[in-house]
Amino acid sequence: MAAFDELQKHYHQRDLAARQWKKEGGKVVGYFCDNVPEEFILAAGLFPLRLSGDPWGDAERAGPYSEQGNVFSREGFVASMLHMILNGKYDFLDYLIIPHARDSIHRLYTTLINLKETESALKLPELYYLDNLHTNFYSAGIYNRDRWLALKKQLEEWIGKEITNERLSQAIAVTNESKRLLKELADLRVADPSLVAGVDALQIIGSSMFMPKKEHNKLLKEYLAGAGHLPVRNGARLFIEGSPLDNLQLYEIIESCRATVVAEDNCWGNRNFDVPIDMSADPVDAVIDRYNNKAPCSRMYPLSCRVEYCLRSALESEAQGVIFSIYRFDEIQAWETPDEIKAFKENGIPALYLKDQPYLITEPEALKTNIEEFVQGI
Amino acid sequence: MSEQSGDKQLRITNEVRAYQREWIEKTRQRVSEGEPFAICNGDDCEEILNVMDIPVIVINYWHAIITTKRMADYYLDILRERDYPATVFSMGLAVTMDNKPDMAPWGGLPKPSIIIGGARQDTEMRIMELWAREYGCTFWPMEFALWHGVERVPPPGWFERVRDHWDELVDPYKLDYRVQDHEKLIRYLEVSTGKKFSMAKLTEAMELVNKQMDYWRMARDLIAKTSPCPASLRDQLSMYQVMWHRGTPQGRDFLKAYYEEVKERVETGTAACPDEKIRLMWVNALGTPPRWGKWAEEKYGAVCVTHNYMGIAVDCYARTIKNNDPLRTLAARYMLLFWTTPDWIAAQAKHSNCQAIVMVAGRGTIAAYEKTGVPLAAIPSERDDEATRAALSDFIETRLLS
Ligand code: SF4
Predict the structure, then answer these.
(1) pLDDT over 50 (residue A68)
(2) Which of A242, A370, B5, B39 could make an S-S bridge to A325, C-beta 3.0–4.6 Å?
């Protein structure tokens, strides 16, 4: 399928579209995590590019800043991202928005602002810290709202003009279309029998963060139009919970064990596009509401919002088993896991807990044996 | 108990220890009579709770007690058994999960009515939420936490400005929200405990904090200019537990007594380590004396005379109340206590006439400290082992003695 090949290409060459955009005179805004409102960036006429790491690349440049305990916790994931920023892999970024997500992401920010002061030779984009709170209370929403409005203002300053409601509504229409199409993809995955491999799904979802949304929508539509010809997938239906997966290693191993990942709770997977934006409301309010109410990252309080989201997503996917894959030092993810495993047990769903996982899987065989055993037991 | 030779323990440290034991017993008694009791993280709400006469134990202090009683491994295992990350910050939760008062230090804590936690670290809110669940008490999440208040590079010399010019260092819009956070908490405490909050009492408490820290500074300054050092680092650090009673007359009186005892030692020429030849500053996160301290003293006469915690006490807690608003002033301190910057650590080392700073450090840190002009002895870990001793010997022999 030509459409899939194109999407796959962008998943693997993550800076391709952004560099092209830049060459054509556009400006690129890098960001981390899934809580930076890309609608504002799109409406400003800028290219939003989510930054990721590279498990096969090194993290040497991050070394001096990751000493003293696990400064860039979550194994190599965040160190890898920092390394890529420092070694010029993202030298085409004009701006970089860093949200107040987990500690490791916050430390990326403090490291970078310090470096900006001390190492003038380093070419770093203009940095913007997007604060937000880690509870879902009404009052936290008010604070977050002010921060998102401040971001909008900053974007307006960068482009030298106002972001009109009309432009914003157009951007929302595009991202909502993207969310709707990705939901269709999710439905193909949870169909019985499942029609899309998790490995393919991760690439399709991921590429939406690396290429122009409209182009992505067009390709995805083509892909979905041909879905009738997709071969059915047999084997165990699995749900994956755990640390951020910005690469395919784990799914490749799992799906080589006669299993299909039918859904996941991950900011690089289904969690990224879960909640659409209300098109009938004021566009600024609607964007803010969406980001206040989107599916929670593990750092969020209360625990019940995480456990419920995880359980509900797994039940809806009719998964027969759940694999938890948690990076070493990803403590906040590990803290919620016992409650989630318990909830699955109560629902008669078996779980496999892979603790202390490395960012780069260096012993795939051992992991495969472990997963095969689990799949056979289902 | 001492790991430093020649060290004569300060009388005050025993008084403090005795007071702490008495305090926990009294608190247990009060709780059994139906009074409220709170658990919070260090530097989160203590003054407010103290002003409201709600006894509070600070989680870091409780963890220090667990560690001192050599129970850390036991409780870390309790966490591992339950598939939770075994971290120091969750030991208190482990004590509660284990639910064996006979095993627990102090026979365990009385049941709290509230546990307050914030977003200082990813896991803090979660751990304290689970802890409250384990106790079956209220969990109160604070939206804003220490170090949340600042999105900028620490300005050079910030430590000289933080007492009087804190308003220039903390982002005002965040502070607005943190103040609201406190108002909500105070309301909740008033409703749930029937206790009262008073601005006048908070002002008084803030002034007591300032006084307490002034005595601390006076004692530190005496220690800084007296060689051989009059008070062991262990004694200096053990005064830190008074920090958890700050804003009370008792807290102030303890520091006054400490200062007076140090002064008496200076006047009588009493030294903690009479053979002092080299003065060092020890830096670590837990505020514990170096395990290799005794070895370094015996081998080189190298004495750790100060610690970054002393700098925290002296430079970072006192705040001048602005606009007659003690709550806002205090909230600002709960958002910014300190930054561990090389210029600040080096300033402390210089002030205490230290020839070097010792800490666990890697490339990046060493490079940053080189610029301060105070040599940094980087050791591979906090353990007192071959590797640490070799690194220290090498540093002392090549950099300080040659
Ligand atoms: S899990 Fe949360 S903090 Fe981590 S990358 Fe995803 S959104 Fe960011």
Answers:
(1) no
(2) A242
pLDDT at A132 over 90: yes
On whether residue A329 sits in a domain, the answer given is yes
CB spacing of A139 vs B365 below 8 angstroms: no
Give the model's pLDDT for residue A70: 45
The answer on A69 and A32 residing in a single domain is yes
Check whether residue A301 and residue A221 sit in a common domain. Answer: yes
The angle that helices A198-207 and A165-190 make with each other, rounded to 10 degrees, is 170
The reply to whether A353 and A369 lie within a common domain is yes
B88: nearest Cα among B112, B110, B66: B66
Judge if A372 and A279 occupy the same domain: yes
The amino acid sitting at B21 is R
Closest atom of ligand 1 to A105 CA is: 3
pTM: 0.94
A62 phi, psi to nearest 5 deg:
-85, -15
Domain check: are A173 and A117 in the same one? Answer: no
Compute the distance between CA of residue A275 and CA of residue A375 in angstroms, rounded to an integer: 31
Q: B122, A303: Cβ pair inside 8 Å?
A: no
User: How many domains, chain A?
Assistant: 2
Query: Which residues, in sequence order, are CB contacts of A244 under 8 Å at separation 6+?
Result: A74, A77, A266, A267, A268
Whichever domain contains A72, its CATH number is 3.40.50.11890
SS3 B357: strand
Q: Which residues of A touch B84 (CB under 8 A)?
A: 334-335, 338
User: Which domains are assigned to chain B?
Assistant: 36-142 (3.40.50)
The reply to whether ipTM tops 0.90 is yes
Give A80-110 pLDDT, tens digit per residue: 999 999 999 999 999 999 999 888 888 889 8
How do residues A184-223 score in pLDDT, each as one tens digit?
Answer: 999 999 999 999 999 999 999 999 999 999 999 999 999 9
Tokens of B191: 């409703």
In a domain, residue A2? The reply is: no
CATH code, domain with A214: 3.40.50.11900
Reported confidence tier of residue A66, pLDDT bands at 50, 70, 90: low
For the stretch B128-168, pLDDT in tens is 999 999 999 999 999 998 887 678 889 999 999 999 999 99
Same domain, A205 and A68: no
B304 close contact with A: CB closer than 8 A: no
Q: Quote the CA–CA distance of B154 and B174 in Å, as a whole number.
A: 17
Taking a C-beta distance cutoff of 8 angstroms, is the pair A227, A249 a contact?
Answer: no
pLDDT for B202 equals 98
A197-210: b (≥16 Cβ within 10 Å) or e? bbbbbbbbbbbbbb
- Report the nearest atom of ligand 1 relative to the CA of A99: 8
Question: Is A328 found in the same domain as A202?
Answer: yes
CB contact under 8 Å between B180 and A139, yes or no, is: yes
Last residue of a domain, one of A122, A144, A165: A165
Q: Euclidean distance between the first and final Cα of chain B, in Å?
A: 34
**Pocket around ligand 1: residues whose beta carbon is below 6 Å from it?**
A 33-34, 101-102, 105, 244, 267, 297
Range of the domain at A127: 26-165
- Is the confidence at residue B1, as pLDDT, over 60? no
Q: Look at residue A232 in the predicted model and tell me its pLDDT.
A: 95
Q: Which residue among A165, A197, A223 closes a domain?
A: A165
